[in-house]
Amino acid sequence: MDNPICVTCGMQYAAPRSDCPICEDERQYVPPSGQQWTDFATLQREHEALIKPEGDRITGIACTPKFGIGQRALFVETDSGNFLWDLSAYLDDTIADHITARGGITGIAISHPHYYTTCVEWARTFDVPVYLHEGDRQWIGRPDDRIELWSGQTKQVGDGLTLVNLGVHFTGGTVLHWSGGERGRGALLSGDIVQVIPDRKFVAFMYSYPNLIPERPPVVRHAAEILAGYRFEAIYGAWWDAVVREDGYDVVQRSAKRYLEFVS
């Protein structure tokens, strides 16, 4: 099949292959049933759009039933232009029409390779760049001219929208800080670089979530130091309703402190 998509993680590749490097990496897994593939057209036949509010001017976008890892994209509406954070593999006319009706998007950014998925399909649909950190360039499954690699610790992608490379989970592991979010109190869109957990008083930092490999202490310490320079009330994680609604800055700092105390 052209541009096959891994059923387990959702990564789309430029050509047929027998393996999925993302799933064979120690942070992910190949299920006991073995490697399985699908394609974009099959996804559209077997799933349908799921769109619902997640916060103030933030809308979640994914599909039902869930596919792959199960994360959802976040459509962020700002005064200077809309932006898309992280991605679900699924995209159809319902999603495209919803985004277009709200003014479209100026770009897409993705937190880490597990969510690169069908980014080329999204970028071509909306004719926008996809910002990926160059530290994870080796994981790109389907190269395309719309993929824009960036380097360093930060990149501005809009008025009040800053990509921040924390290096958690992957070398290029990135979060999006929106200074205008939560009515000016700030929002951190974190994917699972900073993982929102059931106890909303804390967040988690892991090298691998499914395989329960903890993140390296120096990486967590460095990430907390970087985020000390930003203020944010809410944290939007990778999953539906995975949102810390208040005291986000303090939640991150005390979580990092607790983590380092446990592993030291």
Uncertain stretches:
none
Structural class of the helices, strands and pairings? alpha+beta
The overall strand count is 19
Give the topology string: H per helix, E per strand.
EHEHEEEEHEHEEEEEHEEEEEHEEH
Count of DSSP H/I helices: 7
Rg calculated over all Cα atoms: 17 Å
Strand order of the largest sheet: 3-4-5-6-7-8-9
Q: What helical percentage do the residues reach?
A: 10-25%
Overall geometry: globular
User: What's the N-to-C terminus distance?
Assistant: 49 Å
Strand content: 25-35%
Mean pLDDT: 97
Largest sheet: 7 strands, mixed
Protein name: Metallo-beta-lactamase domain-containing protein
InterPro entries: Metallo-B-lactamas, RibonucZ/Hydroxyglut_hydro
What does this protein structure show overall?
This protein is of the alpha+beta class and 264 residues long. 22% of the residues lie in helices and 27% in strands. The strands form five sheets. Strands 3-4-5-6-7-8-9 form a seven-stranded mixed beta sheet. It has a six-stranded mixed beta sheet with strand order 10-11-12-13-18-19, covered by helices on one side. Strands 1-2 form a two-stranded antiparallel ribbon. α6 runs antiparallel to α7. The termini are far apart. The mean pLDDT is 97.
Give the helices and strands, then pairings.
Blueprint: E1 5-6, H1 21-24, E2 37-38, H2 40-46, E3 48-55, E4 58-64, E5 73-76, E6 83-85, H3 93-101, E7 108-109, H4 119-126, E8 130-133, E9 147-150, E10 154-158, E11 161-165, E12 174-178, H5 181-184, E13 187-191, E14 195-196, E15 203-204, E16 206-208, E17 213-214, H6 217-227, E18 234-237, E19 243-244, H7 248-263
Parallel strand pairs: 6-7, 7-8, 8-9, 13-18
Antiparallel strand pairs: 1-2, 3-4, 4-5, 5-6, 10-11, 11-12, 12-13, 14-15, 16-17, 18-19
Helix pairs in contact: 6-7
